[in-house]
Amino acid sequence: MMTNLHSSSSSVYLFGIDLTSQSRLIQFLIISTAVLIFHVTQGYIQELILQLKPLRTYPNYFTLVQFICFTILAYAERFFFGKSIKRRKAPIQTYAVIALFTIGTMSLSNAAVMRLNYPTHMMFKSCKLIPVMIGSMLILGKRYNLYDVLACLCMTIGLIFFTLADSQVQPEFDLLGVWLVCCALVADAVIGNVQEKALKEYKPSNSEMILFSYSIGAIYLLLFELVFGSLREAFWTWWTYPIKSYVFTALFSFAGYLGVNCVLDLVRHFGALIAVTVTTFRKTITIILSFIAFTKPFTFQYLWSGAIVAFGIYLNAYGQNQKSVDTYTRSIWNRLLRFRRKTSTYHYPLESV
């Protein structure tokens, strides 16, 4: 069975604030709002970094800096706020697997965004629901309803037309970027479901999950860059633009770290698919802001193909909470009818002449 917004839950905390006494809907809205704020901020900073083309040459180094920042932030959180920094709940093998796929999704995603128009990259990431659903069926044995299938179909169709529009208006369109982001989505699907399984089975803290996943991932990346990459050249190229490279990446990582904490809370209490639905919605906001804040070619095919994807997201959300949505909609409709009856039967006094 899928986790919904009305199922029972254990204690719910967000950055140390106890939300347990709040209703499930309020908990969901608060955590989701935090996800939107931090990740939209992260997306804006990332596009600022990408404005500097020399930094695009080293996507793996960009990922390495992110992993190091995440490791430092997670260690600091456990040191200052954690009850015990030495105690680890989940096995190291689990974190090694998560780290490997996290490297896959972030490295491939960073390589893709260097080659694709930013809104197109975000649109692909918005369709993460498709591989997550497939991964949930294979890894967790979940089953989905007709609404989920239709949602996947809408997302696929909308994504195809969005990509076609991008290839027509963007002179730098790169098909390799499409393949890279597709591979990143597959890795992302595995991560979400493995994380959900680990969180339910071992109940580690968010800081533990991030610390071990990203520290092991940083070791993987560092070894790879030392053997196959150009670590020194990347370092000095970035050092040429210290503010837009290291400072902005640190801010980017800080916003991302807070966002990842919120996403892990969604995964823990509402399930991987609900979490992906929320992060998908924030990507839609990021795409809109990208067109507003940064000058880029636009065609109305972006608009209606994006609307098809958005409709797919709505179908997915409706399918997961059909009963609650129907009940809420019916209650709103009944209130409107009662209000109409009251206003139609009320006799207003005649104005004095």
Automatic annotation (TrEMBL):
What does the UniProt keyword field contain? Membrane, Transmembrane, Transmembrane helix, Transport
Membrane-spanning ranges: 25-45, 57-75, 95-116, 147-164, 176-194, 210-231, 243-264, 271-294, 300-318
Coiled-coil stretches noted in the UniProt entry, renumbered to this chain: none
Query: Where can this protein be found?
Result: Membrane
Listed InterPro entries:
EmrE-like, SCL35B1-4/HUT1
Q: Which GO terms describe its molecular function?
A: 3'-phosphoadenosine 5'-phosphosulfate transmembrane transporter activity
In the record, the note on similarity to other proteins reads:
Belongs to the nucleotide-sugar transporter family. SLC35B subfamily.
Name of the protein: Adenosine 3'-phospho 5'-phosphosulfate transporter 2
Name its species. Answer: Adineta ricciae (Rotifer)
